[in-house]
Design brief:
Elements (H helix, E strand, L loop, with lengths): L1 H19 L13 E9 L5 H14 L7 E5 L15 E7 L2 H9 L1 H10 L3 E10 L4
Antiparallel strand pairs: 1-3, 1-4, 2-3
Pfam families: Dabb (PF07876)
Organism: Salmonirosea aquatica
InterPro entries: Dabb, Dimeric_a/b-barrel, TAT_signal
Length: about 130
C-alpha cells in the first residue's frame, strides 16, 4: 500500500512539474498536454550502426512542427524492481493536445520514419498520457 501511495504521489508530482515547467513552451503548459513516449527494442541491440541509424531517424522526427519538446534517451543506470532497462532508445515528446499528436502521426516525416527505420527494431512500445490541470 505504501508503495502504491508513494508511486501515485511521484507520478502526480512529475506530471504537475511537467505541466508547469518553464522549460516547456507556453502552449505546452496548457491543460490538454499530451505526452508521447516510445521505447524501441532494436533487433540487434549490440549493433552500433543500427543504433546510430535510429538516432538519425529520431532526429528527423524532431522537425515535425506539432512537437513542443522532444528528448531521445537510453536506459539510465538506476536500480529498482520496476525499472525497464531492456529497450535500446526512447523517444519522448510533448504535444499541446491530442489533435496535435494525431497530426504528428500522419505527418509525412513520421510516415517516412516508419518506412525507413522500422526494419531496425523488433518491438516498440508506445505510452500516451493526456494531462489535465486542476
Amino acid at each position: 500500500m505504501a508503495l502504491t501511495n508513494r508511486r501515485t504521489f511521484l507520478q502526480k508530482a512529475g506530471l504537475a512539474a511537467v505541466g508547469t515547467s518553464p522549460l516547456l513552451p507556453e502552449p505546452a503548459r496548457k491543460k490538454d498536454l499530451l505526452v508521447h513516449h516510445v521505447f524501441f527494442y532494436l533487433k540487434d541491440p549490440q549493433n552500433a550502426q543500427h543504433e546510430s541509424q535510429l538516432l538519425e531517424g529520431l532526429g528527423k522526427l524532431a522537425q515535425i512542427s506539432t512537437i513542443q519538446l522532444s528528448h531521445i534517451g537510453r536506459p539510465a543506470r538506476t536500480s529498482g524492481d520496476a525499472i525497464e532497462k531492456g529497450y535500446s532508445l526512447s523517444w519522448l515528446c510533448f504535444f499541446k493536445n491530442l489533435i496535435e499528436e494525431e497530426i504528428y502521426q500522419t505527418d509525412p516525416i513520421h510516415l517516412k520514419f516508419l518506412e525507413d527505420y522500422a526494419h531496425l527494431w523488433e518491438k516498440r512500445v508506445v505510452y500516451n498520457a493526456l494531462g489535465k490541470k486542476g
